[in-house]
Specification:
The complex is a heterodimer of chains A (317) and B (393).
Chain A: E1 10-14, H1 19-31, E2 34-39, E3 47-51, E4 68-73, H2 76-83, E5 87-90, H3 94-106, E6 111-114, H4 121-136, E7 142-144, E8 150-153, E9 157-160, E10 176-181, H5 184-196, E11 200-206, H6 217-226, E12 232-238, H7 243-254, E13 259-264, H8 288-297, E14 301-302, H9 309-314
Parallel strand pairs in A: 1-2, 1-5, 2-4, 5-6, 6-7, 10-11, 10-12, 12-13, 13-14
Antiparallel strand pairs in A: 3-4, 8-9, 8-11
Helix pairs in contact in A: 3-4, 6-7, 7-8
Chain B: H1 5-15, E1 22-25, H2 28-42, E2 47-51, E3 64-67, H3 70-81, E4 85-86, E5 96-97, E6 101-105, E7 109-120, E8 125-131, H4 138-144, E9 149-154, H5 162-171, H6 179-195, E10 198-209, E11 214-216, E12 220-223, H7 234-237, H8 245-252, E13 256-259, E14 264-268, H9 271-283, E15 290-293, H10 300-312, E16 318-325, H11 330-343, E17 350-356, H12 359-368, E18 374-375, H13 379-389
Parallel strand pairs in B: 14-16, 16-17, 17-18
Antiparallel strand pairs in B: 1-6, 2-3, 2-6, 4-5, 7-8, 7-10, 8-9, 10-11, 10-12, 13-15
The chains are: A alpha/beta (317), B alpha+beta (393).
Chain lengths: 317, 393
């Protein structure tokens, strides 16, 4: 087990013919992910050269290995009906990204992962409203992102832009850690530290750095808590908003597994946007100190330095 | 992105949020002419001269003055304010130079309210916030008397409903003489907020005049930077004098840069890692000079530009390059560092930590360049090495 994605996950890449979409669709395929199709409106009927596939998932591909192709469709609905896609990965540029998410929702995609950075907040307010409506109606649906690195279950499935080779697949009998983060590069940092310590990862989820997004800490923590293959959790937050505090409340009430956390931005001044639209301290709210306190109160072990996320968690196993 | 009060009021007017009559002025002649015109048009002898800077608290800082002595007196007041270094609780001790004025008609004020709209991350909707305590610093009101802050959220599929605005208005103590105007004002503000991609729209104060009119006496508007692609007009609203010159230069080069007051320059990929790099420098006992995220897809030119900007800063006594390449390739970073260092003389110690995609090629480029760089093998190691290299703190 793992969360959200595994070796059976079938992925459609929305925006597969764009530069970024093409590059990362090939990257995911080269990791061993089942990328089954792409969507670019107006390019339906074409095939997309998705490059070679590894013999086993995560394995290095020999030079000169045979290239594969996947079909390109005009709509996500066709991708679902004709290629069996159940998960979508979105690289559509900001002006069309929210529409792309809504289209995936409507086509019956179960998990929508939006990598696109720079989606207007007003668009995300509408997307969020539709997401809540569909979930209330009983649709099995999750949105990850936007502005996120994606989701990986090492050794099974990589969807997104993270470097696959830094991860360590879980093996039976040894502990595996779930990683959830608002930041892409900090996720890699945590994964790199775990791998150096010889600790595997069950799944890693980048929830993204935007103020309004899909899955939040509570959603992912709940899944990790319920996943028998996840033995501990690293949670990486940032200044701004109250998502970390809500995560802390959930941990306090429900999580018995060891949790280590780091919050980026302890040294950031108030009122300045630190790269991510969501990373801003305003009105005295959203400081790293407040988040550290809430997490400590929930029994989470804090790594004050981003260099010690792995060892902090390791000390709890 | 922030805009000036007078620009905000032009947007208010476009959407039907009532504003007093007023004219912007960029020099003393314009200020005097504006005052004369206002007095003629409104038959009110009182005008207000208002400094236009992006920070709040202008009144307390001496940047807003009521003038009763006609156009000549308005000119005198304008002379005091225009060009002054206005210090408010939001500008920092250095203050902000006043380059623009707004000359506005005086009003007979009966009550001052507070109204704002903002993107509320917790409810994932637009929140409307109001208070009877207009004209005050709202954060102080929220802290001292939280019961005086009224809030509701707007369903994006419905929009701001009349009943919501009415309920709020009655709670604010408005009566049948003013409630209809208040509802219209609030709905107009919401329409503007959505159509113009605002992240904040604040009216402090929203006044009730003695003639029972509702008028926005101030306008503070922030835009959502992510929506810039569909608002070409924002380019004209931008006042470059209000922004940090280095941050502006970085933005034009497609880089995320924030100036800070320490002395260790940082170049990092990814916002989270860039913030953590600042944190770890602080933990090592020093202070970062900047936040700089070169992003995931930076080109060699962008990296060269980024590293040059840090090299050219006078306050930088040491540089820490911290890269964990995912999409960002280490060889691109290395080549950028080498390019910038060839063009500019490197006078300060530079610590480089590279990890991730193409790290070996990157390290080779740096080694072959002959540059004196201090290699580091982790974020902690790098921070400690750079602090040691500048001779501690």
């Amino acid at each position: 087990m793992s969360i959200l994605v595994d070796k059976n996950t079938k992925v459609v890449v929305q925006g597969i013919t764009g530069n970024t979409g093409a590059f990362h669709a090939r990257g995911c395929f080269a990791y061993g992910t089942q990328v089954v199709s792409g969507v670019t409106p107006g390019r339906g009927g074409e095939t997309f050269d998705i490059g070679p596939k590894p013999t086993t998932i995560g394995a290095k591909i020999p030079e000169g290995a045979k290239s594969h192709t996947v079909p390109v469709y005009n709509t996500v609905r066709e991708a679902v009906e004709l290629s069996g896609a159940d998960t979508s990965c979105i690289f559509v540029p900001p002006p069309g990204a929210a529409e792309a998410i809504l289209e995936a929702f409507d086509a019956g995609i179960r998990l929508v992962i939006c990598i696109t950075e720079g989606v207007p907040v007003m668009d995300m307010i509408k997307v969020r409203r539709v997401l809540e409506q569909k979930k209330a109606e009983g649709q099995d649906l999750w949105l990850v992102g936007p502005n996120c690195p994606g989701v990986i279950t090492p050794g099974e499935c990589k969807i997104g832009i993270m470097p696959g080779h830094i991860h360590t697949p879980a093996v039976t009998g040894k502990p595996a850690i779930g990683v959830v983060s608002r930041s892409g590069t900090l996720t890699y940092e945590a994964v790199g530290q775990l791998t150096r310590l010889g600790i595997a990862q069950s799944s890693c989820v980048g929830i993204g750095g935007d103020p309004i997004n899909g899955m939040d800490f509570v959603d992912v923590l709940t899944m990790f808590n319920n996943d028998p293959k996840t033995d501990g959790i690293i949670m990486i937050g940032e200044i701004g908003g109250g998502a970390e505090e809500r995560g802390a409340e959930y941990i306090k009430a429900h999580v018995k597994k060891p949790v280590a956390a780091f919050i980026a931005g302890a040294s950031a001044p108030a009122g300045k946007r630190m790269g991510h639209a969501g990373a801003i301290i305003s009105g005295g709210k959203g400081t790293a100190e407040a988040k550290f306190r809430a997490l400590e109160d929930a029994g989470v072990k804090i790594s004050r330095s981003p260099a010690a996320m792995g060892e902090t968690l390791a000390s709890m196993l | 992105m922030k805009i000036h009060e007078y620009q905000g009021k032009q947007l208010f007017a476009k959407y039907g949020v009532p504003i007093p009559k007023g004219y912007p002025a960029f020099n003393l002649d314009e200020a005097e002419a504006a005052a004369k015109r206002l007095i003629e048009e409104t038959k009110i002898p009182v005008v207000v001269v208002k400094a236009q800077i992006h920070a709040g608290g202008r009144g307390k800082g001496g940047g807003v003055k009521v003038v009763k002595g006609g156009p000549a007196a308005a000119r005198e007041t304008a002379k005091q304010i225009l060009g002054m270094q206005l210090v408010t609780h939001q500008t920092g001790p250095a203050g902000q130079k006043v380059g623009r004025l707004y000359i506005e008609q005086g009003l007979d004020i009966a009550r001052e309210l507070y109204v704002a709209m903002l993107v509320d991350r917790d409810s994932r909707r637009i929140a409307v916030i109001a208070s009877t305590e207009g004209g005050m610093d709202i954060e102080t009101v929220a802290h001292d008397t939280p019961e005086k802050i009224l809030t509701f959220h707007v369903d994006p599929t419905v929009g701001l409903a009349g009943y919501q605005a009415r309920e709020l208005g009655f709670k604010l103590g408005l009566t049948k003489d003013t409630i209809g105007k208040f509802v219209k004002t609030l709905q107009a503000l919401y329409a503007m907020f959505v159509a113009e991609d605002c992240s904040l729209a604040e009216i402090n104060p929203l006044v009730v005049t003695k003639g029972n009119d509702i008028v926005a006496l101030d306008a503070k508007i922030n835009f959502d930077d992510n929506a810039e692609f569909r608002h070409k007009e924002w380019a004209e609203l931008q006042d470059k004098a209000e922004e940090d010159a280095t941050e502006l230069e970085a933005k034009e080069a497609g880089l995320n840069y924030v100036s800070l007051d320490g002395n260790i320059g940082c170049m990092v990929n990814g916002a989270g890692l860039a913030m953590s790099t600042m944190d770890v420098i602080q933990l090592a006992g020093a202070k970062p000079a900047n936040f700089l995220d070169v992003g995931g897809g930076a080109t060699e030119q962008q990296v060269t530009k980024a590293f040059s900007m840090i090299l050219e800063s006078d306050k930088v006594k040491g540089i820490f390059v911290n890269i964990f390449g995912g999409i960002m390739r280490c060889d691109v970073i290395a080549q950028g560092i080498v390019n910038a260092s060839r063009a500019l003389h490197v006078k300060v110690p530079v610590v480089v930590r590279l990890e991730g995609t193409n790290v070996e090629i990157g390290k080779k480029i740096l080694a072959d360049s002959g540059l004196k760089l201090i290699p580091a093998d982790s974020i902690k190691d790098g921070a400690e090495k750079i602090v040691a290299a500048i001779g501690g703190v």
